[in-house]
Input
Amino acid sequence: MDKKKFAKIALACGADAVGFTTAEDINKEPSNRKPLAFEEKSWEKKISPRAHFPSALGILVVLKTFKLYNNPLKEGEVKVASSSSLDYHLALSDILEAIAKELKKDGIESLALCDKEGLMDKEIAKRAGLGFIGKNRLLIHPKLGSSHNIGYLLLDVLVEPDEEIQLDCGQCNACMTACPQKVIGENSFDAHGCLSYITQWKNAAYTPLNGCFYGCDICMRACPYNRVGEKNADFIFNENEFSNLSKRAFKGQYGHRDFAWIGKDRICRNIDWIKKEKMMGNIHELKYLQDKVDELKEQGVYRTLPEMLGANGPVINLDGNEVINLSSNNYLGFANHPRLKKAATAAIEKYGVGPGAVRTINGNMDIHDELERRLAHFKHEEAVTVYQSGFNCNSGTIQAITDRGDLIISDSLNHASIIDGVRLSRADKAVYQHSDMEDLERILKENQGKYNVTLIITDGVFSMDGDLAKLPKIVELAEQYGALTYVDDAHGSGVLGECGRGTVDHFGLHGRIDFIIGTLSKGFGCLGGYVASKQVTKEWLSHRGRPILFSTSLPPAIVAALIEAVGMLEESSEYTDRLWDNARYFKEELGKLGFNTGHSETPITPVIIGDEAKAVAFSKELLKNGVYACSIVFPTVPMGTGRLRCMITAEHTKENLKQAVEVFEKVGKEMGLI
Output
């Protein structure tokens, strides 16, 4: 037989590579691949050419290549594995039949086969010198890669076999790494777990198919011998494309495609799996949150958390840059004060780093009790209960001191922790317009005598504008209509009143406010919160304050530092005096430049811009120029009132503040804000 002649004919007929081998049996399980379920009864036909053509002596093998594509999918799309648009069995049959006619002319009888007929085509092609078997058990041609289909003609004549290619995958594990099923091993291949087989198997259980309803080409696209295109629309379909077709219409429209043989029902099953996979993937990808984050970015209010390197002071190292700090709640500079650090260190040596339990079990140390006694004395109140944070104070106390049948009346601009605490209560709720005493009285009058307990809740200092609650009038109305009062003094503790005793002390209302809440993280420079009230309140909260019952108490180092902070405030007013002096200077200088600083009555200095995106941009530009003043936008403040909230501390020097004002002037003029 003239091999060169028929190799040339095969290439002319459309083959991309041609090889020859003998028709000897494959006398082993090729490449350690065990028979699949449907092969077990016909294994002889898989390994014996003569089982198909008894007079077979030689084999002519052809390869027909196809191009691989990544084919990324859009919403609602599915795909088939890269192949040819025409069923490759049909394409190969045309090539083989054309070659067979030419063989017939030379008196050579033949039988055309491709893999659906049963022979181990890849092993036959390997023997014909057309490649080597890769770790994914595909035939890899050194030049054509593994993206091809194999056909062959069993011949009744002997042919000289082509020399086998002595190559292998070496140390390349690309296909093993890429396979989502992890069925490819160094010396093994579990075909039962291959997605290509699963998409075809009638009784397969649900498996994520990576968007491919027929076949799988993931390992092929990973193989370095292959070239991969980006997209081919012939292999992409709408996920609902087949569901409304009758079986006859499906066959008429898609009968020529390689996936048609598994039938419409199996294809629809696979697409249903893909839909399920997408649904589960969307759930775990938290797409709804990503959409919300994208919306923040579109609005220009998205931000990332800055990283501070070192202690919180008037000048800090933020993201590697030294900047003047106008965003800290560290009013008195206690967060890094030597006396507090010394007290904290000593407490660690004595008590350890954590209390080890909630206070109601054995996490209540003697220093917790000492802190509560010292705070009660400092606040001129009967008793104090300490919480892990100011937020915990509100969320834990409000729900504990009110119940069904009670009424809570809350200022419209109260802090988020108050709002959440009110939501946790089973009491009815009413909201009065910010600091509007007529509106408050209206609600009190309308509801007088209807509830067991009426509780008026207000911030002492409103943190976004720096204005004070009208506590004297609130107390007057409360006493007139038989209501209790609850004041969150987070930004008043350590700031207002004698030596920082708070808003209640500032207005001289001791004994007339029923519940005074404060934080220990701002003026006191540490962490935690407290409720100052009657002894009976303390006793009740120890039984019903959920953060006390279900969250570990403050660590010893923090408690010891707080005790020291209370002592320092009792000793002198120097820290609060310096704070107020700095605040007055900064407000006056910004006012001279034309900035809107609102109606603040405290060291909190809002610089109101209005537009949220401009406020964020102003903050970013200040930071580039060495001043860190954090922007505050909706929902923290009402829409259209975006601002910078400048927090002046006792630690700032006049030079710090003068330099900051100069930067405000420079950037404000550049942005057209002043």
The mean pLDDT is 93. The chain is about 40% helix and 15% strand. The longest helix spans residues 263-285.
